[in-house]
Amino acid sequence: MGIPLTYNLRNLMVRRTTTVMTAMGMALTVVVLLAALALVDGLRAAFRSSGDARNVLVLRKGSSSELSSAISQETYRDMLYAPGVAENGGNRMASLELITVVTLPKPGNLNGQAVTLRGLLPIGIELRQVSLQEGRWFQAGQRELVVGRAIAQRCPSAQVGDWLRIGSSEWQVVGVMDAGGSAVDSEIFADLNVVSNYFHRSDQLSSVLLHATDQGSLPELIQSLNNDQRLNVNAQTEKAYYQAQAASGASLEHLGVLVALIMSVGSAFQAMNTMYAAVARRSREIGTMRVLGFSRRSLLASFLIESLLLAGLGGALACLLALPLNFVTTAIGNFSTMSETAFRFHVGPVAIGIGMVFALFMGGMGGFLPARNAARKQILRALREN
């Protein structure tokens, strides 16, 4: 015969203070895990939304990022007529681009904010899913900038009409662009010719972005570029490139999980102490239930369920505490691009499920030994204890 679940719920209600304190301790541990998962999931979501499925990004062979790549004007012209490159009004949909990192002033940070400055052709804007949120696009031949929405939000001096110092000259912010939460929201766009001349890189650019005629022509286009020995380039889909950049968050995820596991040991001991105290206080109840015919197995299951209920309460509380993270925007340095990428934390169903399972694991780990102790009590000894 099993012990009713109402018995466990009543005991948790009777010990309100202890129940709440133990649940809070478990909740804090689960929140640490949820924060780490939400951070990495948000970063991955930002990179997943970046890029077009029909775009091909071309880098110099051996380069892992646009920042370390070098593509010459001659190489760009050679790949313009590769089979599979789309046309628009008789013009090939290909953008030669230059990427560099600049530092913008940031409140509370003496070192400033490292961001990606992208010099590109007008077709490069068309190849990306971006729209103007404020102001206008830069004009050819002018030192004008269009900043991403995330930069405008995090940098008060990067608003439309402001002047930003890049190197030894002043550049005017003429627009703010919205890329729908993708990595482009953390970039600055400017005219390719102006940027390349200013940084003395008129012939050694960074990358080329090509637009394929359709999905079916992508493999042929990528293969033809990679197999052309004259070009010495590595072509891949733009989506694949950004997905590889998301790996920068893996170390943070591992660190967050490690911290949560270390904290879980303390939380498990806290649950264990709570359940041992409950067993000690209810010794006579245990003896009485044994006299009434409840088996040792029923007692073991009952006290273990009580510990799991306590952990479930802590897990649910942690999920409630973590949900506001969905409205928090942060930025992380990308070791490949050497610049910051802004993104929003994402506490989704998967993270919540992992958090609840983690909480129940702590409850089971902390409740098993006290439950076994309760089940092993001798009837007469239990009845004599206070």
Kindly summarize this structure in a few lines.
This protein is an alpha+beta fold and 386 residues long.
Unreliable residue runs? none
Please work out how many helical segments DSSP would assign.
13
- Sheet bearing the most strands, described? 10 strands, mixed
Mean pLDDT across all amino acids: 84
- Measure the end-to-end span: 26 Å
Q: Total number of β-strand segments? A: 16
State which percent range the strand residues make up: 15-25%
Shape: elongated
Description:
The model has no long low-confidence stretch (mean pLDDT 84). The chain has 13 helices and 16 strands. Strand 9 (163-166) and strand 10 (169-178) form a beta hairpin. The strands form four sheets. Strands 1, 5, 6, 7, 8, 9, 10, 11, 13 and 14 form a ten-stranded mixed sheet that branches. Strands 2-12 form a two-stranded antiparallel ribbon. Helix 2 packs antiparallel against helix 9 (250-281), helix 9 packs parallel to helix 12 (349-376) and helix 11 (296-322) runs antiparallel to helix 12 (349-376). The longest helix is centred in the N-terminal third of the chain and has 33 residues, at 16-48. The chain has two domains: 5-48 and 248-384, no CATH class; 62-231, no CATH class. The protein has 386 residues and is α+β, with helices and mostly antiparallel strands.
